Structures are given as C-alpha cells and as structure tokens.
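If your schedule permits, I should be very grateful for your opinion on a structural question. I would ask you to consider whether the tokens describe a fold that such a sequence might reasonably adopt. Thank you for your consideration; the sequence and its tokens are set out here.
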Amino acid sequence: MKTNIFVQKTSNLFVENRILKFIIVALTLAVIFNSFMVYRAVKYQRVVLIPPTMTGTVEFIQGRPTDGYTKDLSRRIVNLAATYSPPTARIQFEELLSYYAPESYPEASKAWYSLASRVEESQVSSVFYLQTIKLGDDDIEMFGNLKQFAGDTLLENSSKTYLIKYRLQDGRFYIVSFKEKFAQRQEEERG
C-alpha cells in the first residue's frame, strides 16, 4: 500500500475543509452585513407619492405622513362631507365612505346615505368655506363657515367646527369618525 498517496489525500481534505469553513464564515458575515444594511435602508426610506387629487407631493417618513398630506386629505374630506347639492350628494358621500375604517363603515354608511336621501328629498344644497385646520396626533379640527340653501333661499349661515378622528394603517388614511364639534361635546356629556 502506498502511504504517500493516502497522506496527500487526507491533507488535501483537511485543506479543503478549512477553505470551505472559511467560505461559510465569509458568507455568514456577508449575509449579516447585508441584513443590517437592508434594515437601515428600510428604516430611513422615504416614499414620495403624487396622487392626482392632491396639490403637492406627499411624503411618509418612518410611517408618518407630512402635515401637507394630512391637510390636503382634510380639505378633500370636508369638501366631500359638507359641500354638496342634490344631484351630487350621494356620489360624494359614497366617495367619502371609501375613507372610513372598516369598523366605522356600517354606522357611517347608514348616516351618510340617510343624509343623502334627505338632501335629495328636500333639495338642500350646502357649501362649507374652510378657514382653519388644526392637526392633532389622531384628530383634525376644521373651522369654517357653512351655508345651506333650499333653492335660492338661505336656510343657514353659521360657523361650524368639524372634528375628524383618524388613524393611519400601513400608510393608508382611515376616518374613524367625522362629527361636528358641538355635537361631539353633547355626546360626551350624555355618555
């Protein structure tokens, strides 16, 4: 038996094992480094959107939108809810309902469709002139002047404050509730 060939083969196997161990360690370090860099990139990522109905760019930084995006959405929502005429009320309220959170949708749909029926029956038009918007962590307060007409007759001309409770889930804006601030205070006093 030739021992030289056996010794060379075993030493080659040991060298080969060391090289494979080195490669495995190097790949493991590369995967760890890559994972760290991906985590860092995701943490500091920015998503810039330009929706067709918004007036400017929209930025989400670490999952929170900029104030400009929230204000644009507030304007859109209050216009859908408080500026309507008999032919447009039902369409606008349907679009408004698309912003509602799933758990708030059933109650909101009853309220908005009921209002749409009353608007169509009584031929009432409404215009809300927004003046100020105050943003909170999970609510938006909008103050302005509301005018309601039946035909050419002015029914109401008063200042109103609307309060939107909202939440952001996976970058999507959900309305939890939309109420007049005075009406909300009355509900809180009752409850």
Helices lie at 3-43, 67-82, 89-97, 105-122, 181-190. The chain has a mean pLDDT of 83.
